[in-house]
Specification:
Chain lengths: 779, 779
């Protein structure tokens, strides 16, 4: 099904049941542990070659010449791809991009970041391919570069792209390209009320600038692509560790000029995604190399290249908030600059989220947001777990504490005076149908025994201790489409057909639980298929915490169709109205007469039914006016809060997390264990961003592309107490995603705790010992 | 969808359109010619091993010992499978069979035909596997054997199976096992009226016995299976050249004790099937070997082993027909003995078709048929293009001519006096809703300028010439279930999801045509998926000429759902009622206002619709009472006729076919070229059976397992004139299968032509020069 949902509903109510609400183990848990899992990394096919990429050492340079002849002659080298290959009349397009086609598959005339690919080698072994890289001679003419937003927007700045970007012509009318120019890729603006007047009249105004650095996803599994191009059949088959099977299919279909049905994208389970694997990434270059080589090509990105593959946007957010003396917010004016790096990737969409999210979960009558995607000569930035939201929340939840301080008010109290409540409108003009922020904030405050007097102290060992809270709102991708199909086979085994990607988050497990209960069979009998665009139904993307709700809804609808058909078949055999039949634990029985029952297998065999199938969909609609930011930003809103207790060693500036608490509105919890694990992951990611992670560039070249010099949270850093909580109200039937919800408030709560402990605020992430010490020393 | 069809209809009406009715080339024609087609034969996967089978040299023997130790030690041998392996507690079941589980995967205590597998070897190369066969030492104790039906049914005959067969417990209540015993596997009986009384009162009675030999399918592509058993995940994946993906899946799931969802059967295009590849054949032994080896195993059956893989049933039919002097049939009494070989395979079903088909397309008030599946020590017999029907038609259409001769009546006239007409009941009690036999017979007679006076002549060169006609009815598998799904992607490309197997017959091409027209997009934009039981919807089987009608109907229904959804989406954009929209050539337009139109892609992009999906099904019901043969044998009836003109060289007995004509009731023809090609193939198969083909056994051992000594029709044998005709009445909207319809009447028409030319009848096929000469010489 597609288009408008037949019943006008964009979600599906579920109740706890035999499987739903149970902490079922991740279906493929054992294979993840014993190594038998079919990661793309482990894939082999006959005649496969191995790829390595030659990359620019310069952040910005003109390519004067590329000589690959020596590399091509190296025994074992099968093909070397350069921009020259795209001159062939049968060549694929040389540029791609999910919104703006600005990214070359391999660079021809210019490189735009240190790491931009200039050639790709396919060889019999990865070692030969690596050796061939050393034989490729590229002559560069280095160009002046821009690496920061300030540099990029300065007058007379060198241009990353000589021409302004052109949007892809398909369905992107909500992207504002008109504002683009110079190094501005795209902009987004939100307008509500009269900000200038309101700020002029405000009794207090806080005006600060907050900074989030670029960080990397560091998925356990790197990007892996295995591509086969069949030139005679004009078919392209790609095995990829992607979160977006259909987005990749569509990008390749466009690039190769093939109908979507001639491009097959198969997606085995992933070893983590976090947004790094949304949209086409290394599929275009691997597919083009396979096209050139005439043999299958497998690319496994080395860890150091992972660090320049895609990043979380560096953001600089200038935020002014006006309020009354008694703590009513009256206006907020925000300029958000997202450093998008050399190519647009999904920046044009992300800056919208990053823009309106700056309003926070607050009722503010006058709002102005200008959000910019800025091109620089850094690796491209893209989606990262709750994209745009954590940068925004870092800014607005610091600012709320700063405003409270200015007002001499308890920051929790200040928030509570302004939190959105059910039925109020958000700054986009959309009504909040659910509002749990008061509850969430209360829980977060209680978790650290918050009181205005206890927010800072000095421990017996002389450490400075502090507490902090934060509360956030987060949108989910809207509009959105999820289709699913379910097939109950005659032996009672069930197949769930979905293109939702399993990447360790347990998506396939919760879909199996939902399907099992919606039909009435044991969850052990459910098998969830590997996404394969040749076979599995359309799904927009596995991201934005949307899978359990959207795909879960589609699967539930499909499974309910199956249950109805099963009851209809059984009604003749059991001589009862199908309405009087219940299906549970694989048995169809007459309600109240359990002895009158038949197994699914008996029903199928006796009616000679080979299988029972059904399909279902969940479609949401919405969108924002590109000039005013008014409309529907999100089908529903993710809501979370966090609190933290930290200690700072005044001698070193090092921050110790004594307690970290995070809570998310969960709606109906399908699998408590998996939900809590997602919360744990999200909270620790937030802590890692708050305290450790930062990509450091020198002259535009990344200096810490490894896990010795780039720090992520480690076992030794874990909070002394880590608590997560799922807000599931009695009778709740709606599923809410929660995989990303607590990452943003954890960063902000840690920021507020550090500020309370240190007595001074670090507005630049991460809050490293050096920065904390510098701030405390007033430098 | 499943179970009862929602609209109570078991077929779908279609009209000629942009694609339907057009002679579209077979979609994969080019790849079939240039060798790029993905036959299972060409499949390779990493770590694959190659299999060969050790087979019994004796038709019947006890196995005293099997020693595979020397074979196991041969370098490059990976595993050797014997019955002993099935003693392991985790072993799969050692027997399989689609109706009766009587066939050992490998023999343990007894071999039952010359060729029965006793061991299977997996090795690094096929050559090593072949060499290993020579190192396997089996000690046999030869047993008395039965190779003919007469031997098998004689008193005190050796038993092929010591115990009577037990039916599988699933859904086979219509198989009569009660009559089994001794070497009778199963029996079927049809009872109508009082045959004994009617025959006693009949004015004339013909009583003759007719014989059809065992023949082989000789598909271009042999049986190929590539199996991988993942013991850690307990998953079995099989790539197979099978006509029945789901039948194979179910057989393996049962054998390995796995849920159906843990068995994946993928079916690439086949190089011919003709029934030889229905139900599990070499999948069990290859999968068991893969289980033992712990590595993928590929088996490609050598041509000589193809000849002992499965055969068309040898049949001996004693038929008595009584009539009035003026040529009204009053009674028919038939005993049919099908030589099923060593294992039941699908004999229990086939003997039903072969039984009731003996009545022919005639109105006979008193009928008795006893049809038997008989075990012998020959290779197992199974499905062969129109199973059971050609043997029956050979008998009854010879007998009609013999009766006409006895009555001194024109055999065409005799038939016309008795042909079933619309609304009459067949001997099973079911009403014939369509009856085209008069028309078909008239066409066949006209094609050879039939007249009673011209049926025999002597040519100028002294050759004996003769004409013959025949007319037949043929059932199709009933009940039957076909599911399909269709997905229209946003770029206007369409996927048809079906488990119908493409085996050169053009199934996927006609399904694409039906889908294209039912949505309204060009057929070039349609892609039909490769069957894969993990993904594609359930289909019962690709056999019995059912695919174009049953699966075509399911695809049409699914595509119509897609069209409705597309019109619904477009109605908002075009500001028109969806009922006023037409879809054609990929454009949705307002009826009568072609300028108000949008392409499929525009509709999808503007509504942000990723894809539009729909599903459909065709389910038929029926079945016969096992005691009386009363009920519904066939959802609808295939109807055909043929005529032939032959010349016999009186010196050699060789038959030259001057003209061969075949006509089938076609209903709505989807693709005239492909329909005619199927008719050509079917007619030439019939000619080949009539004149050339016969498996010859000596002491139970096949003596002609090769294409030098086993003759199939060759280019030099082609009729001087070969004409086929499709009976498509104006306004016809129902699809009829026709892939098997004219094989039976061609055999019979040639038999009658030879009899007319020779002046004497050869009742034993094939009508070789020796047999014709013997008959003419009265020996």
């Amino acid at each position: 099904m597609t288009g408008k949902p037949d019943d006008g509903r964009t979600s599906v109510a579920v109740a706890a049941g035999a499987a739903v609400g149970q902490s079922v183990d991740v279906l493929e848990a054992r294979s993840r542990v014993d190594g038998t899992i079919d990661f793309a990394l482990n894939a082999e096919i006959p005649h496969m070659t191995h790829a390595r990429l030659a990359r620019s050492p310069y952040a910005h340079a003109r390519i004067l010449s590329i000589d690959v002849s020596a590399a091509e002659k190296l025994p074992g080298v099968v093909a070397v791809l350069t921009a020259a290959d795209f001159e062939r009349p049968d060549a694929p397009a040389r540029h791609h991009g999910p919104v703006v086609r600005d990214q070359p598959v391999v660079c021809g005339t210019k490189v735009r970041f240190a790491g931009d690919p200039v050639a790709a080698v396919a060889a019999e072994t990865e070692e030969i391919a690596a050796a061939a890289l050393g034989l490729i001679e590229v002559v560069y003419d280095e160009l002046p570069k821009v690496t920061t937003v300030e540099e990029a927007l300065a007058g007379g700045a060198p241009l990353v792209h000589d021409r302004p970007p052109e949007a892809r012509d398909r369905g992107y009318s909500d992207i504002k390209l008109a504002g683009a120019g110079g190094n501005i890729c795209t902009r987004f603006q939100l307008r509500r009320g009269d900000v200038e007047a309101a700020l002029a009249e405000a009794e207090v105004v806080v005006d600060r600038t907050y900074f989030s650095p670029a960080v990397q996803h560091v998925t356990m599994e790197p990007h892996v692509v295995l591509a086969t191009y069949d030139g005679r059949k004009r078919e392209l088959t790609v095995l990829s560790s992607t979160q977006g099977p259909f987005a990749v299919r569509d990008a390749l279909s466009e690039m190769f000029g093939l109908p979507s049905s001639a491009v097959r994208v198969v997606v085995p389970p992933l070893g983590g995604g976090y947004g790094a694997k949304t949209y086409a990434k290394y599929e275009p270059i691997t597919a083009a190399l396979a096209w050139k080589a005439g043999r299958p090509v497998k690319l496994v990105l080395p860890r150091d290249e992972e660090f320049i593959s895609i990043t979380k946007h560096e953001a600089t957010i200038r935020m002014r908030t006006g309020a009354t003396r008694d703590g009513r917010l009256v206006a907020r004016d925000v300029e958000v600059f997202f450093n998008g790096g050399a190519y647009a990737d999904i920046s044009p969409r992300l800056i919208k989220n990053g823009g309106y999210s700056c309003v926070g979960p607050y009722d503010i009558p006058h709002v102005r947001v200008d959000s910019y995607a800025v091109y620089t000569n850094l690796p491209p930035a893209g989606a990262y777990r709750g994209y745009g939201v954590s940068q925004a929340a870092w800014a607005y939840e610091q600012q709320m504490d700063e405003l409270a301080e200015l007002l001499g008010m308890d920051p929790v109290e200040l928030r509570k005076r302004n939190l959105l409540t059910k039925g109020q409108d958000f700054a986009t003009g959309e009504t909040m149908h659910e509002a749990h922020w008061h509850q969430l904030l209360d829980k977060a405050a209680a978790a650290v025994e918050w009181s205005p007097d206890s927010k800072a102290a000095r421990s017996a060992e002389g450490r400075l201790s502090g507490k902090g809270v934060a509360v956030i709102l987060k949108s989910t991708i809207t509009p959105s489409t999820a289709h699913a199909a379910v097939r109950l086979d005659a032996d009672g085994a069930m197949q769930v057909f979905t293109s939702a990607v399993e990447m360790g988050q347990g998506a396939h497990t919760v879909l199996a639980q939902l399907a099992a209960d919606a039909v009435g069979i044991p969850v052990e009998r459910v098998h969830v298929t590997t996404p394969d665009t040749w076979y599995t139904p359309y799904d927009q993307t596995t991201s934005s915490s949307r899978t359990t709700r959207a795909m879960g809804g589609a699967v539930t609808k499909a499974a309910r169709v199956v249950r109805e058909r099963l009851r209809h078949l059984a009604s003749e055999l059991l001589e009862a109205d199908s309405g009087d039949l219940v299906v549970a634990d694989g048995l169809v029985s007459v309600a109240g007469v359990p002895s009158r029952s038949l197994s699914v297998a008996e029903v199928c065999y006796r009616t000679r039914t080979g299988s029972i199938s059904g399909d279902g969909e969940v479609v949401t609609s919405g969108g924002l006016d590109p000039e005013t930011g008014q409309g529907v930003a999100s089908d529903h809103w993710h809501q979370g809060a966090a609190s933290a207790e930290v200690e700072i060693d005044p001698a070193t500036g090092k921050v110790y997390v004594r307690k970290l608490y995070a809570v998310a509105h969960a709606g109906r919890v399908i699998n408590p264990k998996l939900a809590r694990l997602q919360m744990h992951g999200s909270a620790l990611f937030g802590m890692s961003h708050a305290l450790y992670e930062e990509l450091i560039y020198d002259n535009g070249v990344l200096t810490n592309p490894n896990l010795s010099e780039y720090s992520i949270v480690a076992m030794g850093d874990l909070p002394a107490r880590l608590e997560v909580e799922l807000l599931e109200e009695p009778g709740e039937a709606q599923i809410h995603g929660l995989g990303e919800t607590v990452l943003p408030p954890v960063i902000a709560a840690l920021g507020n705790a550090v500020a309370n402990a240190a007595g001074v605020r670090v507005r630049r992430l991460p809050m490293t010992p050096e920065r904390v010490l510098d701030a405390m020393e007033g430098t």
